[in-house]
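Protocol step 6 of 9: fold each sequence in the batch and record its structure tokens directly after the sequence line. For illustration, a two-sequence batch is reproduced in full.

Sequence one:
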Amino acid sequence: MMGIRAQQKEKTRRALVDAAFNQLNAERSFSSLSLREVAREAKIAPTSFYRHFKDMNELGLTMVDEGGLTLRQMMRKGRQRAEAGGSVIRISVDTFMEVLESNPNVFRILLHERSGTSAPFRAAVAREIEHFISELAHYTEATAKRSPELAHAQAEALVTLVFNAGAAALDMKRVDRKALADRLVIQLRMVAMGSEALQLKLDKR
């Protein structure tokens, strides 16, 4: 078990991460946040920040890792929900849209920093996206009986479509987001059907 001091340190670290997430919005990327602003929202002295993170970059990279992990966990839950009955694509899209509505800044950090000015941040987001692709490729290979190469290509196409849709959906009204989700389901099904047809063609060779 953690000691009281370790628990308090973890609680303060968590408060700093949450404070930084809370300050992101359509107009504010992580690079525009200041250490003082984050510390103020977390209700700690700016000098105390350095007990938890080396600098703002370390905080930001932690947020990228956490954002990617949170989204992957939610998408796993979506696939598990689909196993109980229903379309895995439809349920996964609905799950993704639920995350965007309830916790948009988890996705916003990935979106902003994917093409930001910081090379370490771009590399960190690229790693998170590759984790998404690899996880989905393994799932597709196992459940849809795709070859490893085709499973990876399909997963890459699906993740690209989902990320692009997420970027568009972030600041949409609910009714527009619903229409976008419906279009995304059709696009993902088109990719999956094309992948299936290609696999059948390859299997006949």
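Sequence two, same batch, same settings:
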Amino acid sequence: MSRIAVFFAEGYEEIEALTVVDICRRAGIEVQMIAVNGEQAVKGSHGIGVQMDAAFATVDLDSLDMLVLPGGMPGTRNLEAHQGLMEQVDAFYRDGKYVAAICAAPSILGHRGILQGRKAGCYPGWEEQLTGARVSMDPASVDGNVITGRGMGCAIPFALAIVAQLLGQEQADRVAESIVYPA
């Protein structure tokens, strides 16, 4: 079974994070919601608190297939400030494992040199933070082991791109049909 972690920091964009969790779980992917601040619940940028599955320090990250970084403010900055998470993002990328980010969070990948020469998208106005990327206006972009999405309105295509990479396009299409998402 494929295993991913979605990382939550205070001020995350609720729909971006929870859409990934929901769609990936529907597809049969094991998803862990991880609090980088160690709290049991993390509040999003619109004041919605969500109960976490685990704290960063307690997770066996080596057993995961993908790390997912939702956007939102100040959630994106709070994720980037977490040294342990940034070390894991670098290690996953270096080892050829998947890293995924949506909205403002692809800026983290840009700052870390991960987007050099890769197709990537982000929230409008953040393009200069995608250092070295070939900027895409697609709702979701996949380039090798890097998946990016543009923003909250692109959360479903972003989540379906994750499913397609881990379980194949047929499974992504089945999930899309089951949620009445237009093909």
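Proceed to step 7 once all outputs are recorded. Observation for sequence two: The chain has six helices and eleven strands.
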